[in-house]
Amino acid sequence: MPGVNILLIVGGGIAAYKACELVRLMRRDGAGVTCVLTDGGAQFVTAMSLAALSGNRVHTSLWDAGAEAEIGHIQLSRAADLVIVCPATADLLAKMAAGLADDLATTLLLATDTPVLAVPAMNVRMWNHAATRRNIGWLREAGVAIMEPDEGPMACGEFGPGRLPEPPAIWASAQAMLGGSHPLANTKPGPLAHSLSGRHVLVTAGPTHEAIDPVRYLANRSSGKQGFAIAEAAAKAGARVTLVAGPVALATPPGCERVDVESAAEMAAAVHAALQADVAVMVAAVADWRPANAADRKLKKGTTAPQLELVENPDILAQLARDPRRPALLIGFAAETHDVVAHAQAKLASKGADWIVANDVSGPPGTSAMGGDANAVQLVRAEGVEAWERVSKHEIARRLVARIAEALAASAQQQPEALDASAQQEPEALDASAQQEPPEALAASAQQQPEALASAPEPRDG
Ligand code: CTP
């Protein structure tokens, strides 16, 4: 990636040695690399190694008059196209989340307006600790891209998530953030680059789990792959992406802010909290029903099988269509096993969506659109139906994002302000709409989980 400048902050963990390999890969592909070594990082790798590999001076201290005269520390972070924090230790993540600036690395991170990719590595218990989970959530909310650590045996002898991902995977994520359409050796910005800059895209993905009792739930076979691919493609196109994910085993795509939920009620609350958005792509296979009364203790086997009484879940897409803060472009998916187009057209009308992407989900589990890696869809709009041949879910995501960007650009030309979610309402109006009663079902779910709405970020204006 000639012409690209990376600022690499090396934190103090045993995985710091992999930062050397990362520098080598980035240089091999033509990127310029400048390293900042924390005091902790210097316990594991030397400034000399990083300088030799990067071909650049390594910065270590906030109080280096020579370095400050040469290039101010604020300038150092702003001159980069991407800041990578690798390894991002629990301590460094906590400082970033709290906005501390007590050394060169944290000061740069607080001062930068350059995208940041943090690559955590730590002991599994530290990774799972509530404080780290909270810090990760805060950082994602602030727009920091955070890679999921790998799972496996760790230097400390324990096993689980917390290992630093391998350097090629880190460099691939960095390249994706820089706008390339494919990891490694891609020297041109991807075709989608910047096409959604300044837009907020909300994506729902995966199944929902509806509790029967503390150990059992109702679910469906959705893998979340299509929704995650769309979130990834939207982030590559420069959008701010909120990915509301049901329970799936997928890594967060780089650059996306992920909100994990379990049930349809939680998903509805998370969607509502993420507004305002320019576009919503509702890919989740939301469970239509939930048990009327989830037991709070495990149901025990008896002489007769229990009867489950089901009640209908809120239709999140239909609610969003009626919401005063409805995204300008609202896209639903339709999972059908028969009469695909007719059902999708009926959903377009009944749910108030602008487009429906219809999939045929018939076929054996894992190979059909539900769970498989490829999909053949029909894009159903008021203007007509377009059939897309069977391609990978990533390719469908790229095509859909390209269509979204075209539609937003065309509407913006017609009505310069109509499609700009942030321009739609003055700050006071946002406050007012935040105070409005949410639709009934959302209000009900908010009552069930007051924290979910209480922790909703303030409406943003940009
Ligand atoms: N959807 C939703 N909330 C629900 C059910 C569905 O937001 N409670 C959204 C899905 O995310 C998708 C669209 O509605 O974008 C269609 O979902 P689908 O499961 O195909 O349709 P249903 O409305 O559930 O109808 P049916 O199961 O009868 O086909």
Please give the structural blueprint:
Elements: E1 5-10, H1 17-28, E2 32-37, H2 47-54, H3 65-70, H4 73-78, E3 82-88, H5 90-98, H6 104-111, E4 116-120, H7 124-128, H8 130-141, E5 145-146, E6 150-153, E7 159-163, H9 167-177, E8 200-205, E9 210-211, E10 217-218, H10 225-236, E11 240-245, E12 256-260, H11 264-274, E13 279-282, E14 289-291, E15 310-312, H12 316-322, E16 329-336, H13 340-351, E17 355-360, E18 374-375, E19 377-381, E20 384-387, E21 391-392, H14 393-414, H15 421-424, H16 427-435, H17 440-448, H18 450-454
Parallel strand pairs: 1-2, 1-3, 3-4, 4-5, 8-11, 8-13, 11-12, 13-16, 16-17
Antiparallel strand pairs: 6-7, 9-10, 14-15, 17-19, 18-21, 19-20
Helix pairs in contact: 1-2, 1-9, 5-8, 10-14, 11-17
The protein binds cytidine-5'-triphosphate.
Cytidine-5'-triphosphate binds next to helix 12, strand 16 and helix 13.
If you had to describe this structure to a student in words, what would you say it looks like?
The chain is built from 18 helices and 21 strands. It has 462 residues and is an alpha/beta fold. The chain folds into 2 domains: 173 residues, 3-Layer(aba) Sandwich (Rossmann fold); 255 residues, CoaB-like (Rossmann fold, 3-Layer(aba) Sandwich), CATH 3.40.50. Strand 16, helix 13 and strand 17 form a beta-alpha-beta unit. The longest helix has 22 residues. The C terminus is likely disordered. Cytidine-5'-triphosphate binds next to helix 12, strand 16 and helix 13.
Task: Name the descriptors.
21 strands, eight-stranded mixed β-sheet, Rossmann fold, 36% helix, 2 domains, 462 residues, binds cytidine-5'-triphosphate
